[in-house]
Amino acid sequence: MLLLSGPNMGGNELKYVTECITTGWVSSVGAYVDQFEKMTAEFAGTKYAVATSSGTTALHICLVMLDVKPSDYVIVPNITFIATLNSVKYTGASPILIDTHAGNWQLDLDVLETFLENETEQRNNTCFHKLTGRRIPVIMPVHVLGNMCDMDRLLATAQKYNLIVLEDSTEALGSYYKDKHAGSFGLLGTFSYNGNKLITTGGGGMIVTDDEGLAKRAKHLTTQAKSDPFEYKHDAIGYNYRLVNVAAAIGVAQMEQLKGFISRKKEIIAFYKNELENVGDIKFQEVNADVNPNWWLPTIFTSRQREVLKILNDHKMQSRPFWVPMNQLEMFKDDLYIQNDNRSDFVYQHSLSIPCSTNISDMEMLGVANKIKEVFQ
Ligand SMILES: *Cc1c(COP(=O)(O)O)cnc(C)c1O
Question: In this predicted model, what pLDDT tens digit does every residue of 31-65 receive, in sequence order?
Fold first, then answer.
């Protein structure tokens, strides 16, 4: 099976993990955790980074720190991976789902701005939903597939309506808007090291921020909020959301290869675009001129999506449909969905991701492209 986006363990992973095991530093503290955090902050251009057990737990801790309450709303895009919405639900809050832009597949800024203008009001510099009176403290843009929207416009809108920006930048390690790294725009940003992401620790996550207080609090809350170095005194309801040293050791080895992985992803998308653009009605995700995406998961757009999925998977070339829009899932079907012609469904019905592991060969990509072309012959 040719994997969609599998791990590439081509560096010092084994060496560093072996070191953890031979020294006994396998668990919750250790030099690799610190090093992984430092390397990530440096790469993302933020002052601080705090490692977590997953991208989902990173998002959850951020929402806890922002004091999101069960009576609140949090704004999220309608097309995202489920983890974004789960993290909102863990706090008891409800999502407001914003429709997807048909070209770049990010949260649609026109839809967002119309909603905020017509359906919210400001009280004491806080955003409230007029109809329900519920507070809207936070917006979570998701950099879908490592692409980004017009961030200047999003940040200006967030500021105008007093929304705190928490970036779900879990897919966007190595993505930039005007040379600034994803995750460094909001008060808080997040990364994921799940097995299919650009780099992986098996499973893991990271919170990035320039705010020292939030960074310290994130470390504290993810390590059971223990407040005394010796005695078991705790000063809050904490979480066991820390990343273990063995996983961080893999993370350090992966970070050493990150630049190479990003260049390979760019070669992969260039290869596929060269082979497939304008074959039948195939299109690729639109990219704003100010965005330099990591091209984590090359995804094509075609009316013959189901046929392409079938032929590729029949030939053991793993390809996947896009995520089901959140408003179509049972748990979120009664939540607020602010739409423009249900573009999310349109994007969902047309898109599929194709094999793009960083260690895929050009021959393998050519095989994928040729299979796709067969559908249109
Ligand atoms: C991967 C991902 C996450 C976090 O996932 P984990 O598997 O918990 O690390 C969150 N949001 C999006 C959009 C993702 O793709």
Answer: 999 999 999 999 999 999 999 999 999 999 999 99
Alpha carbon of 317 to ligand 1 centroid (Å):
23
Round to whole Å and give the CA distance between 187 and 341: 32
Please identify, by atom number, the ligand 1 atom nearest to the C-alpha of residue 197.
1
pLDDT digits (tens, 9 = 90+) for 182-193: 999 999 999 999
Give domain 13-255's CATH architecture: 3-Layer(aba) Sandwich (3.40)
Q: What is the pTM of this model?
A: 0.98
Q: How far apart are CA 48 and CA 67, in angstroms?
A: 20
Gap between the Cα atoms of 91 and 137, Å rounded: 13
Residue type, 298: P
Q: How far apart are CA 198 and CA 5, in angstroms?
A: 8
Nearest CA to ligand 1 atom 2: 170
Query: Which of 52, 60, 62, 81, when mutated, tests ligand 1's pocket best, judged by the most ligand atoms within 8 Å of its CB?
Result: 81
> Which CATH code is given to the segment(s) 258-376?
3.90.1150.10
